[in-house]
Amino acid sequence: MGELKLMKGNEALAEAAIRCGADAYFGYPITPQSEVIEYLSEQNPYERTGMVVLQSSSPGVCLKQEGLAYIAGAEVPCVFADVVRGGPGLGTIQPSQADYFQNTKGGGNGDYRNIVLAPASVQEMADFVPLGFELAFKYRMAVCILSDGAIGQMMEKVVLPEQKARLTEEEIKAKYPWALTGRKRGTQHRVITSLDLDSARMEEHNRHLQRKYDEVTKNEVRYEMIDCDDAEYVFVAYGSSARIAQKSVQLGRAAGLKVGLLRPITLWPYPTQAIRNLIDKGVKGFLSVELSCGQMIEDVLLACNGRAKAEHFGRVGGIIHTPEEVLEAMKKQIIGE
Amino acid sequence: MAEITLQDIIQPENLVYEKSKLLTEKPFHYCPGCGHGTVHRIIAEVLEELGVDDRTIGVSPVGCAVMAYDYFDVDFVEAAHGRAPACATGIKRVWPDKVVFSYQGDGDLAAIGTCETIHTCNRGENITMIFVNNGIYGMTGGQMAPTTLVGMKTATTPYGRMPQWPDGTPNNGFPLQITQLLAQLPGTRYVTRQAVFSAAAVRNCKKAIKKAFQNQIENKNGVNFVEIVSNCNSNWKMSAVDANKWLQDNMLPVYPLGDLKDNFELIKK
After folding, report:
1. DSSP states of B107-153 as a string?
2. pLDDT by residue (tens digit) across B162-212?
3. Per-domain residue ranges for chain B?
4. Which of B148, B124, B155, B152 is nearest to B134 (CA)?
5. Which residue of B has its CA nearest to A182?
6. Does the pLDDT at position B135 exceed 60?
7. How many Cα atoms within 13 Å fall on the side-chain side of residue B63?
8. pLDDT on residue A141
9. pLDDT of residue B268
10. What's the fold here for domain B28-266?
11. Residues in A touching B77 (Cβ below 8 Å)
12. Do the two domains A4-159 and A223-335 of this chain adopt the same fold?
């Protein structure tokens, strides 16, 4: 077992990145995630450990969309963290989940996807860093760790991963032959680019990316179910909203309501089949609980495909919903009284 | 007396010049008369002479040279528009023993990438930056760049670049002296302005580019920055010969050739 510490979510993410072997780090201080850049600067990761971390919060992540589209096109592994604050524009520094669309549906140009992991605790802020690197290198694509100001700022107990050694150049050459390390004499030079003006090749490149995304969808869907075995009504919530909805489930169960929680851990690929399975098992309705005006609800509705009722409930502008009002919304909007 | 045939002449002992082995067989897509081909050739020769082809990583821009990676037989990344110095920074920081260079035009380096250019130079990254300045957006069809000369006609300044309206209100602004600006930053070690319009200019340019790589290879800190004042005969709408003449008469007075900074010391003229 690793080391047990009391840490902020942002610090846990930064420490986990160092322990994964990250020795280069590019970030921009934006509230509420500035601790990440501060922590990494203090710890001098280059002295302790070739992976690269990018990190920012909502307005900064807008600026990263250009690079993410290039990363997708050029098939370069990348882990980036978005500690979401309220928008649009400069919005507010308070927690929000209003960047669901930006991170799950794109933001940059072109037909591309990023894997999106949604931590709901400080422990998961740490755990999803090694998982993120593993997926990013396995599929050669960007992985987003999508949290929010609440998860980033709160302190909890966390078990940190073991320190990994930095890969040597020889190990990198053997494991990742596409990585640019200087062209070996007598071999073909390598190019990392997202550009190809030959339409036939570009179409095939896009088809190749889609096949890869299909593979990710098949293998990497992650979610958690709480009290869903006999549930008739299910909250669907991720990240900080899932923590609140978990309490709403307890309150509902105490009041005799058969409610449960489906917590998507991957927001892309989305646990569409898990929702369909719940409908098959008799769930009549879903309430998508998000700190937004209704974004993830679109994926819930697609999964339901008209077979069960689904609505959105959420507070915005930096206000965090209470477990009581979430349960009330379930009663009013889905169960009906 | 036996007649001397071409075959008799084409012998190894008579060889005075050959194409660099670090240029691929792919034909250049550049317009005939454009300076990019010459600059590519110089870089390839320098890398070959320095024997660093197996540890060189180039970063190509967006613009006419976007596909530079097809012509150099070294590893290459194609960066987003203007971001080549940022990309080169990342590579050099993770691989300090690699030889890293960026290759950009004026639209890329001095317009959309100004932020990356200035901060890379200000941080003093140990890289080589090649900047080909022809005063115009070439690939997109000849629009005004920040480096466009006053009065110069382009697709977006059809009446000539006018920095201000006659009443003094702002209009197209002034030619951006990005190279002078970078020379002022403490992070730049070697800043020079060269050209490739004549054999003499090409020889000087090659010396400068070689020095810009040698400094990096010798782990001398600081950015090595080489501007090459070049032509865009297609978008200047001139023959290649006329464009080179026009360059000397009009570009060089605004962008004079020579070293601006060496060994972190500004060169006073």
Report:
1. HIIIIITHHHHHHHHHHT-S-EEEEEE-SEETTTTSEE-TTPPTT--
2. 999 999 999 999 999 999 999 999 999 999 999 999 999 999 999 999 999
3. 28-266
4. B148
5. B55
6. yes
7. 32
8. 96
9. 83
10. Rossmann fold (3.40.50)
11. 74, 180, 191-193
12. yes
Could you give the CA distance from residue B73 to residue A141 in angstroms, rounded to a whole number?
26
Secondary element (H or E) of residue B235: helix B233-236
Q: What percent of chain A has pLDDT over 90?
A: 77
> pLDDT class for A53, splitting at 50, 70, 90?
low
Tokens matching residue A243: 């923590």
Cα separation values, B194 from A46, A160, B30, B177, B184, Å = 37, 54, 20, 14, 18
- Could you say which architecture CATH assigns to the domain A223-335? 3-Layer(aba) Sandwich (3.40)
- Spell out the domain ranges in chain A: 4-159, 223-335
Nearest Cα residue in chain B from A191: B76
CA–CA gap between residue A17 and residue A20 (Å, rounded)? 5
Measured in whole angstroms, the distance separating CA A319 from the mean position of its chain's CA atoms is: 21
* Contact flag A193-B69 (C-beta cutoff 8 Å): yes
Q: In this predicted structure, what is the pLDDT of residue A45?
A: 57
Lowest model confidence (mean pLDDT) among A45-49, A167-171, A332-336, B28-32? A45-49
Q: What is the mean pLDDT of residues A256-282?
A: 98
Sign for the CA dihedral angle at A217, A218, A220, A222 comes to: positive
Q: Rounded distance, CA A22 to CA A35, Å?
A: 17
User: How close is the nearest chain A Cα to the Cα of B101, in Å?
Assistant: 12
Q: Which amino acid is located at A308 in the chain? A: A
pTM, rounded to two decimals = 0.92
**What is the 8-class DSSP label of residue B219?**
T
H or E element at residue B35: none
Write down the architecture of domain A4-159 according to CATH: 3-Layer(aba) Sandwich (3.40)
Residues on chain B touching A50 (C-beta within 8 angstroms): 94-95
Q: Taking the CA of residue A168 as centre, how many other CA atoms within 13 Å lie in the half-sphere pointing to its CB? A: 2
- The H-assigned helical ranges of chain A are 9-19, 34-43, 45-48, 58-74, 100-104, 122-139, 149-153, 169-175, 199-219, 239-254, 272-280, 297-304, 323-329
pLDDT category at A151 given cuts 50, 70, 90 is very high
